[in-house]
């Protein structure tokens, strides 16, 4: 290319007639025109400048490529360092985990050794039939005290709607295994442990009530007296009992007609709660928690009580419940793991007739 340019430049005029293209201000910074006393001609001057331009351009390209290579080398070094750190982090620690820290499930790491041992008796994702689940439940109840047996039903209802609330009672044929202290509020009586006054008070005491009283008992409850498990009131006492709502409501002791604790037939209500009548209600998540006996009950008695609870929840289905009513059902002891039940088999199961 330089030869072609040189050949073209040889036709340029002498110094005395300088071409206008070489006097262009855009080219004046690159081409320095020789003076009249200079020994250089236009071709040799142009070739010298062209070679200088090529040398400067090559140095700039070389320095740029050098910078690019240096930057890529630094990036490669960073990648190598990151890769080494990731590989070091992914490598297992030299000290293996032992004991509860080695358990795969985090929730099991806080369990007791007894719980972890009895948990091996069940299959966590298996759905059991009622007799098998009750038999396993009794095997897993090995504490030093007699555990309660509980049922937990998840239902397809939302209790924030009035037509989807569930609150009822069930009479367990074999009892609860617990001693229930019953207090009765009725007219004509005062809180006297051994001596009672009034006809209704006598009926309540004869039926097995532990505490019987009227306005005096209301005053004692306001003072903090809560030594009872159930509070039954006659309808004529409800206007006075209303003042106890803030004290009894959070404890689940407020008399309510749906729970069978507001009734005119006080002796019958006392006998039912003494024999094993249980109140239940759905919580805000749509689950019913219901005790149905003790772990030392015979398997047949536990099955009878459990099926009575299932039938009660089924019969008292809220009118606003839509679609599939039963979502899941579990049973467990108070200190043991839960056992999931097969819903279809549970609903179709025929419990033995209680003696």
Q: How is this fold's topology laid out?
A:
Layout: H1 2-9, H2 42-90, H3 113-119, H4 130-139, E1 148-155, E2 167-171, E3 182-185, H5 199-207, E4 211-213, H6 215-222, E5 230-233, H7 238-241, H8 245-248, H9 266-275, E6 277-281, E7 287-294, H10 299-315, E8 326-333, E9 339-340, H11 343-348
Parallel strand pairs: 3-4, 3-5
Antiparallel strand pairs: 1-7, 1-8, 2-6, 8-9
Helix pairs in contact: 1-2, 5-9
Protein name: Ribosomal protein
Region (Disordered): 83-103
GO molecular function: rRNA binding; structural constituent of ribosome
Any descriptors?
355 residues, alpha/beta, Ribulose 1,5 Bisphosphate Carboxylase/Oxygenase, Rossmann fold, 4-stranded antiparallel sheet, 3-stranded parallel sheet, 11 helices, 13% strand
